[in-house]
Amino acid sequence: MNAASSSLAAAPASGADLLLWVAFPYICLAVFGVGHVWRYRQDQFGWTSHTSQLLEHRWLRWGSPLFHLGAFMVIAGHVVGLAVPASWTEAAGISEQAYHTTAVRLGSVAGLAMVTGLGMLCARRLLTRRIRLGTDRSDKLLFPLLSATVVLGISATAAHNVFGGGYDYRETVSVWFRGIFTLQPRPEAIADAPLLFQLHALTACLLFAAWPFTRLVHVWSAPVGYLTRPYLVYRRRATTPAPVVGSTPASERSARHAA
Amino acid sequence: MPRGEATIGRVMAQVAMVMNLDKCIGCHTCSVTCKQTWTNRTGVEYAWFNNVETKPGVGYPRRYEDQEQWKGGWMLDRRGRLVLRSGGRVRRLLSLFSNPDLPAIEDYYEPVTYDYDNLVSAPAGQDIPVARPRSALTGKPTAITWGANWEDGLGGAPEHAGADPNLTGEWAQKVKFEFEQTFLFHLPRLCEHCLNPACVSACPSGALYKRVEDGIVLVDQDRCRGWRMCVTACPYKKVYVNHATGKAEKCTFCFPRVEAGQPTVCSETCVGRLRYLGLLLYDADRVGEAAATADEHDLLDAQRGVFLDPCDPEVVAAARESGIPEDWLAAARRSPVHDLVMRYKVALPLHPEYRTMPMVWYVPPLSPVLDAVSEAGGDQDDPDHVFAAVTRLRIPLEYLAELFTAGDTDVVAGVLMKLTALRSYMRQRTLGEDGDEAALKAVGLTAHEAEDLHRLLAVAKYADRYVVPAAHKEDAAALTATENRCPVESAGETSGRRVMLGLPTLRRSSPEGRS
């Protein structure tokens, strides 16, 4: 442990901190995990990107690539910023100043692309009646939640690191984030972070909890296998017997009795 | 048919279709019954697994045959390799976020319903209440400005038909300005269940597949992730996005019926009796090579070269080795599709130049030529006049060639000559004359073959038109499953779940308790 985090560790965590920065993230992660298993097993039919390009393509033409490519960069930035300790990058010869400048520049570009894209996607969803009517409950949860997370995130960066004096989240938020996954929770690390960062972290937790129940599941179906599979797909007619509706097979019934 | 020296690879069977276009009156019964069976659901209001187009015409979706625009099907790259026109694998993955070549709903049409309720709930008044159209997508009142068969019977041809991608130059002008003197025929279209399906090859999730047993191309609804690449890749635009479920849907060739040995709904209900269903055996290992044939004009022969003669003992042996059951081999020998495609060679594929090796073939219509004969002051019933027209009248022939032979007019002319000779010979026979066999001989038919072909094309008994062997009982368990549950329902669930297909969950009770 380095000096910065041990000084933070001196302050005891309050009950509210424990609830917000330990219990809540773990609950969200649990919902994320269990939710995915449940959805994958129960709802393959609903597992889709739910394209609406057929109904509206002019806004989507720009909005969707901007959002997705922006999101990829933003996610990559978060992985580096949250998962890699500052001591590692310094060991690699990247000074804190250099890291900070690069992160803010690249992050701003990525963040702006993502916000613009998401804005366009939200706009078409709200303004195009065809799409608004096709918006289901999960979308009504996902779009505001995702927007809130993204807007809070880019506001935090803008307020503190672009226009503000600079805030080193790698010594606080990142420490808390890594603590969750190393099973050594450090609620005190984030407890004193600026409000925007805290809110961003909380909405992100909520987003992870909502993830398995929304169209975000299509992320896990990114079709990379397509690059290597043969073009033509042949399949035999279903060979595994599906359950017969209305009449439970005798063997299954007895098995259930046995259990 | 002797198959030459090449060895036979994996033999597969396909339930294929042939349509005799001269008999199509454009009644749309096939489309309507298909729609009632498969696409009367939210999300696919605009989709017609089967539709009937008037030709010349722009088609449905508009100008779908213009592959420069829509990028459907395959093409050969500079090195002569077969590639999807919409681009390679990486390019496809890069366009996942926004597919630049996807038709919009406007290219199909905005589906409508009518506020029927107004007919009974309108307050008493001077005027008779009417049911006004409302968009099925927005619920708002809308004007109907396009449809799946908007140009029915050349309606609107002066405005639109000139935009038919198969028309070029002077003929486009003629259709535009003298459409009442042009020809017209109807073209029923459904999924081609291709041997080299571009939709299957373009599906990033591997959800689309071709069935080994009967060649039917299906979308696995559980594996489709809504990447919508299949829609672009299909040059016939016969894969649709269900905008309610976010998944692709397409013609299923009525597989539950075909598995039970019954014809598809469109075939069963065709009032013109113009559809034929039967097996074609093919060599699956030679499909890729045939599809990559360099000259577009050779594609027809290349595809015929992939089909196998079910009477050839070598083929039979290879088919047995590939696991094709005996009754299927017997059905393949009786297949009307094999007769029309391979034996008499009167059926042609739709747009072979797309290189997908389509499996719904067409007997080209004589009517455009007969129309031209009449227009030129000739006698439709005199074979010499028709022969002369076939050889001299460039325009209808070129149009048919654009559709069925990648522009090779000789092949279309050959088929039309054959039909003319058959028509005049059987006409003489029916009138009690002997019949002139010279004309038959010229087109390569014997009197016996002419009788047989006439029986198949003109008499067209139900049992002759549809030779569909039932799926095999070894797979009884799987079959029971498809009979007893909704195809899109997840295992074991019956109640309280929204069923996305317009099919009852339970189709019949099973008191015997199959297991």
UniProtKB/TrEMBL annotation, chain A:
<dbReference type="GO" id="GO:0009325">
    <property type="term" value="C:nitrate reductase complex"/>
</dbReference>
<feature type="transmembrane region" description="Helical">
    <location>
        <begin position="141"/>
        <end position="163"/>
    </location>
</feature>
<dbReference type="GO" id="GO:0005886">
    <property type="term" value="C:plasma membrane"/>
</dbReference>
<protein>
    <recommendedName>
        <fullName>Nitrate reductase-like protein NarX</fullName>
    </recommendedName>
</protein>
<dbReference type="GO" id="GO:0020037">
    <property type="term" value="F:heme binding"/>
</dbReference>
<feature type="transmembrane region" description="Helical">
    <location>
        <begin position="195"/>
        <end position="213"/>
    </location>
</feature>
<keyword id="KW-0534">Nitrate assimilation</keyword>
<dbReference type="GO" id="GO:0046872">
    <property type="term" value="F:metal ion binding"/>
</dbReference>
<keyword id="KW-0249">Electron transport</keyword>
<dbReference type="InterPro" id="IPR003816">
    <property type="entry name" value="Nitrate_red_gam"/>
</dbReference>
<dbReference type="InterPro" id="IPR051936">
    <property type="entry name" value="Heme-iron_electron_transfer"/>
</dbReference>
<dbReference type="Pfam" id="PF02665">
    <property type="entry name" value="Nitrate_red_gam"/>
</dbReference>
<keyword id="KW-0813">Transport</keyword>
<keyword id="KW-0472">Membrane</keyword>
<feature type="transmembrane region" description="Helical">
    <location>
        <begin position="59"/>
        <end position="83"/>
    </location>
</feature>
<comment type="similarity">
    <text>In the N-terminal section; belongs to the nitrate reductase alpha subunit family.</text>
</comment>
<keyword id="KW-0408">Iron</keyword>
<dbReference type="InterPro" id="IPR023234">
    <property type="entry name" value="NarG-like_domain"/>
</dbReference>
<feature type="binding site" description="axial binding residue">
    <location>
        <position position="218"/>
    </location>
    <ligand>
        <name>heme b</name>
    </ligand>
</feature>
<keyword id="KW-1133">Transmembrane helix</keyword>
<feature type="domain" description="NarG-like">
    <location>
        <begin position="18"/>
        <end position="237"/>
    </location>
</feature>
<keyword id="KW-1003">Cell membrane</keyword>
Automatic annotation (TrEMBL), chain B:
<feature type="region of interest" description="Disordered">
    <location>
        <begin position="488"/>
        <end position="515"/>
    </location>
</feature>
<dbReference type="Pfam" id="PF13247">
    <property type="entry name" value="Fer4_11"/>
</dbReference>
<dbReference type="InterPro" id="IPR017896">
    <property type="entry name" value="4Fe4S_Fe-S-bd"/>
</dbReference>
<keyword id="KW-0479">Metal-binding</keyword>
<dbReference type="Pfam" id="PF14711">
    <property type="entry name" value="Nitr_red_bet_C"/>
</dbReference>
<dbReference type="GO" id="GO:0016020">
    <property type="term" value="C:membrane"/>
</dbReference>
<keyword id="KW-0411">Iron-sulfur</keyword>
<dbReference type="GO" id="GO:0030313">
    <property type="term" value="C:cell envelope"/>
</dbReference>
<keyword id="KW-0813">Transport</keyword>
<dbReference type="GO" id="GO:0051539">
    <property type="term" value="F:4 iron, 4 sulfur cluster binding"/>
</dbReference>
<dbReference type="InterPro" id="IPR006547">
    <property type="entry name" value="NO3_Rdtase_bsu"/>
</dbReference>
<keyword id="KW-0004">4Fe-4S</keyword>
<dbReference type="GO" id="GO:0008940">
    <property type="term" value="F:nitrate reductase activity"/>
</dbReference>
<feature type="domain" description="4Fe-4S ferredoxin-type">
    <location>
        <begin position="215"/>
        <end position="244"/>
    </location>
</feature>
<dbReference type="InterPro" id="IPR029263">
    <property type="entry name" value="Nitr_red_bet_C"/>
</dbReference>
<keyword id="KW-0249">Electron transport</keyword>
<dbReference type="GO" id="GO:0046872">
    <property type="term" value="F:metal ion binding"/>
</dbReference>
<feature type="domain" description="4Fe-4S ferredoxin-type">
    <location>
        <begin position="15"/>
        <end position="44"/>
    </location>
</feature>
<dbReference type="GO" id="GO:0042126">
    <property type="term" value="P:nitrate metabolic process"/>
</dbReference>
<keyword id="KW-0408">Iron</keyword>
<protein>
    <submittedName>
        <fullName>Nitrate reductase subunit beta</fullName>
        <ecNumber>1.7.99.4</ecNumber>
    </submittedName>
</protein>
<dbReference type="GO" id="GO:0009061">
    <property type="term" value="P:anaerobic respiration"/>
</dbReference>
